[in-house]
């Protein structure tokens, strides 16, 4: 296969994006951020506001006070079942080679999130059922803007919260919370934050580029393809409206890595003899490929930003409209 300068540009772009993402994750996931930045201060403030006790209940608890975690479990199990049905339909309709498409990769990633979320929600329901009501803080305790203004019902509660507050100020960071949540919770967050950006990218490219300009025998719009490029975002947004998961900016790096892995996968299978490109704008033999690769790379930032804005709007609007019922995300 003959190589051109724009091929080397594309390879260099993917390599730079991959290395840059890994460097960001190495710095952000591994360093101690106790009190060093605004995100950490907001995290500590949020944790203090819900009682000063740090645990992993925000992985399975609803952002709506009084809502049993079983509702979030039902959303996650139901979403997984429906998406699984459509993915099975897709495989039967086309055969397993359909996984050469980015859509199926992202669709599967969303299902992985719902599967992991269901497991943690089952555990959360068990915790909710076995712990005293007073310890289920996401459901029963009122939200306060300042810990010192809270009225403590007993000296023991006051002493416990003061201890937790002191400990929080020195030790509790997002990484520590993730350790408490366990590996499953960490993977669930990565799947959630990666798929959030990926579904926006997938659906925008499909509805705004492929359907209007690239319709052919393989890209013709039908009910299955329409659902595959709609339900992924719909069910994720429904879950977002109920869950308490954070959405840190630096984890856009996982989203970028996810796309880089897909592109590298395409290069490998074409080097091994695969004959056609599922997305024509990724074809390396085109003189426009460098511009297309660069445009798609840049799109990752606004796609992730769109979902981050949705979560920010959820916190801002609902906390104002329902101050006694809504709990802001950590």
TrEMBL record:
One GO cellular component, as annotated: membrane
Chain ranges passing through the membrane: 6-26, 70-89, 109-129, 196-215, 221-242, 254-279, 285-310
Entry keyword set: Membrane, Transmembrane, Transmembrane helix
Keyword Ion transport: no
Top-level lineage group: Eukaryota
The UniProt record lists the keyword Lyase: no
Protein name in the entry: Uncharacterized protein
